[in-house]
Specification:
seven-stranded antiparallel sheet; five-stranded mixed sheet; globular
Length: 529
């Protein structure tokens, strides 16, 4: 049974022994981060080695400066909690469900169509449904409200201020009407405004650019200019994420809503690398096997999760940018200050005594590491649609998702490893991958020792490493230019004569199975243990 809301999820965490309530007063400025960071690294070289990897979820019930407020953090911070959040015993079971839906063939006859009916009925469960009202409307504030009322954290000492770090940011494509739910940090500027950090490659930023294109076209339509050229020129200078506008920007607004404290499947869906045409509300419905209930906003034309703890309604101006950052990011370094759009708050609705859900990022491992590994496992079937030879993928936590991807393939023809590299660099957010290592199918990509041994033995660096240029993550501080730099691919597969390698390839040292079985049988007799 799906979790109805964040409170349902908190209760489940408590029943499972995965939640700690902290009644001692804590400061949202730095103190909560230090507590959570220590627990996040427990069991993986942290200074709390006796604790389970990732530590527990934390519910702070006595937050300095915010009487009565509750702050939930580290809710996804372990492998067990990710399974609990998505209500599975193994994340691979979700991947298998995705594979089954993708493997459906066109029905050839009446019997095939009848067999498809149960699957079609299941699909009906995924679509969101709009309801008249919901718990998020228990308190509606159209005046006398402030972002400063929320117990928002300052995470790290050199952060530019307090940041909302786990928001579900809802926008609508002005051309198609499709909604998007993304997760973009928001720096609190004052009572009614916050920075909107949607990087240029994010869907929210693309909706923003579409609004700008439309506004530019409207502004230039009657003056004899080449309307499309003017719009393209504006967009070449202005990205809508890491924005550095060099010229005039069109006037106008784009409506935005922000949900804080949603059920775990929806929160996770906001970071999922979904196909652009699939709404995150539907992905959440697929994950939770139950539709997400939505309600209309009070001041903007958007639908938001009915059971969310807090809803922020507002807009961004197309002609307004403000310095945002620095911010202690998941790279382990501070992302630098840059220019971003500004969110203006027009209305706040929330549940009575709302729970503020947040997270922190920094040097791995942290909570986002477990969420990233879940993405890796769940969306492997989608990668195989484009790269069918793919066997497995590993995004090591220390590689912070975009710095290193290790993939194993079933190699069938010369040059295939390089084909796979280029295919990965053409896949959505995977285009940011800085380093790709391709190995043969018999290498366990989840075993870094195995990868290191075999990859380094299998390469001739000059022959097997290739470089290319292209888009890189906005947070990459080492690239030659913001958002543009180089990437490296390493072909660590066995080389074939058809690839110009004419020397014998040696066999891997392995004991024969008969001897292994003999030693297994006699192990206790040796008296070693």
């Amino acid at each position: 049974m799906a979790y109805n809301d964040l409170r349902d999820w908190i209760a489940a965490l408590e029943r499972a022994g995965e939640l700690k309530r902290i009644k001692t007063e804590v400061d949202p400025i730095l103190e909560i981060t230090e507590i959570t960071d220590r627990l996040s690294k427990a069991g993986r070289g942290g200074n709390l080695p006796g604790m389970t990897a990732g530590g527990p979820a934390l519910l702070f019930e006595n937050v300095k400066g915010h009487p009565g407020a509750q702050v939930l953090i580290n809710q996804f911070g372990s492998a067990r909690r990710m399974n609990l959040a998505l209500e599975v015993d193994s994340l691979d079971s979700i991947a298998e469900r995705i594979h089954q839906f993708m493997d459906v063939k066109s029905p050839q006859g009446l019997l095939d169509k009848i067999k498809m009916l149960p699957m079609l009925a299941d699909l009906g469960k995924f679509f969101p449904k709009t309801v008249s009202s919901g718990p998020c409307k228990e308190v509606i504030k159209k005046d006398k409200f402030s972002l400063l009322d929320l117990p928002v954290l300052q995470c790290w000492p050199k952060d530019a201020g307090r940041f909302i770090t786990l928001p579900c940011v809802i926008t609508r494509d002005p051309k198609t009407g499709k909604r998007n739910v993304g997760m973009y940090r928001m720096q609190i500027c004052d009572e009614r405004t916050a920075g909107m950090h949607w990087q240029r490659q994010k869907i929210g930023a693309e909706h923003y650019r579409e609004r700008m294109r439309a506004a530019t076209a409207a502004n230039t339509a009657g003056d004899g200019c080449a309307t499309r050229s003017a719009a393209v020129d504006i967009m070449a200078r202005s990205s809508g994420g890491s924005v550095l506008a060099e010229g005039p920007r069109p006037a106008g607004k784009m409506e935005v809503a922000v949900a804080i404290g949603t059920d775990p499947a929806l929160t996770f869906s906001a970071i999922a690398p979904a196909p652009p045409d699939v709404e995150e509300y539907m992905i959440a419905g697929f994950l939770r096997q139950s539709p997400v209930e939505l309600v209309k906003c009070e001041t903007v034309d958007l639908e938001v999760p009915a059971n969310a703890e807090i809803i922020l309604e507002g807009y961004v101006n197309l002609d307004e940018l403000r310095t945002e950052g620095p911010f202690g990011d998941h790279t382990g370094f501070y992302s630098l200050a840059d220019e971003y759009p500004v969110f203006h708050l027009t209305c706040m609705t929330h549940r009575r005594n709302p729970v503020y859900a947040t997270t922190i990022v920094g040097k791995p491992p942290m909570e986002d590491a477990w969420m990233g590994k879940a993405v890796e496992r769940i969306f492997l079937p989608l990668m195989r649609v484009t790269i069918p030879e793919l066997v497995d993928v590993n995004l090591p936590v220390e590689g912070i998702f975009h710095n290193l991807m290790i993939v194993s393939i079933k190699k069938s023809y010369p040059g295939q490893a390089r084909k796979v590299m280029n295919a990965i660099w053409s896949l959505g957010q995977a285009m940011f991958t800085k380093c790709i290592i391709v190995v043969d199918e018999d290498v366990n990509v989840q075993d870094i020792a195995d990868v290191t041994l075999k990859a380094l033995n299998h390469i001739d660096p000059e022959r097997d490493i290739q470089f290319t240029l292209g888009p890189v993550d906005s947070l990459d501080h080492a690239s030659r230019l913001p958002n543009f730099g180089s990437k490296m691919g390493i072909d660590a597969t066995r080389k074939w004569p058809s690839e110009g390698f004419n020397r014998p390839w040696p066999d891997e040292i392995l004991m024969d199975e008969k001897t292994r079985a003999l030693v297994d049988k006699k192990w206790k007799d040796y008296g070693i243990e």
